[in-house]
Amino acid sequence: MKELTVEALFNVFDESAALLSRLLGISYLEALGETAENLFHGHVLQEELNEMDEKRLQKLYKEANLEQHSKEAIRKSYQLAILKGMKEHVQPNHQMTPDSIGLFIAYLLKKSMQGKSAFTLLDPTIGTGNLVTTVLNEFNGQIEAHGVDLDDVLLKLAYAGANLLHHPITLYNQDALEPLLIDPVDVVVCDLPVGYYPNDERAEAYRLKADSGHSYAHHLFIEQSLRHTKPGGHLLFIIPNGLFESTEAKKLQAFLTEEAYIEGVIQLPETLFKSRQAAKSILMIRKKAPGIQKPKEVLLAAMPSLTDKKATAAIIQKIDRWFSEYQER
Ligand code: SAM
Predict the structure, then answer these.
(1) Which of 73, 159, 181, 237 fits a disulfide with 69 by CB distance 3.0 to 4.6 angstroms?
(2) What pTM value is reported for the model?
């Protein structure tokens, strides 16, 4: 049996999700989660379907024959179907971290981990799981991953996707700013949800709570992530470009200086975002620990458009040089 292209695999996810959505009266994204579960188990799990529809789906799944596809082909086609579902029903928190950013984070993490491939990782806002599975696919090691998210539809997609890719990820459906039953990890990756955190009472437990009114959720997430990181652990956040320019920024900066080393801030290409205001950067920090030195200089870089190969190569060279100098000390 020949291997399907990413587009043909997407069509399998898409056709099954559209059919299940119509037959079961659920959203496309929910039906996509059901589809991924069916594909993982190798048969149709929904007992409500009639024999004809069940056979149609069974045939589709058999032709897809997922076992013969690479993890990246499966992740990409699943991701395309998730994007389609998100476009159909726009919801403010339904955002997925795109490939290009996930791959860049994986590259930075590889540099930070210096060849280590067995470690623990947490994404406190794992959403669909695309960021984490992009990283896990790149490492191909023994990463023990944990993910938290408030949104049960997205978390189901993360769960079913992780199964399809055979990645062990422990998932928690809760507000990640409430106490977490997760031991400190070696690495945190997080595409920060940006905005106000509505639970002022809970925000009281954070040093980065606002002096008055609602606190910034993205600030609280940085604090919560550091609490759940081992000393010397690495944290990579996708942040809004203006993170250090807001009214609460001074407090954040002072907190970070006390608890961690800011290793780098890398601006992502504006072309990846809808507008200049929506553009983001990657913040690399390391939790302080005895024996861990502060970098001589913070890595500051702006990624050019990824289609500009020459400029991208020059920035990558600069980043590689920064890592070698930092790690040789
Ligand atoms: N990296 C994710 C992916 O690849 O799908 C996307 C993350 S998205 C930018 C931010 C996520 O934060 C959303 O999935 C949203 O549901 C989640 N979120 C927002 N506030 C939260 C909270 N207090 N606790 C847990 N998750 C939260």
Answers:
(1) 73
(2) 0.96
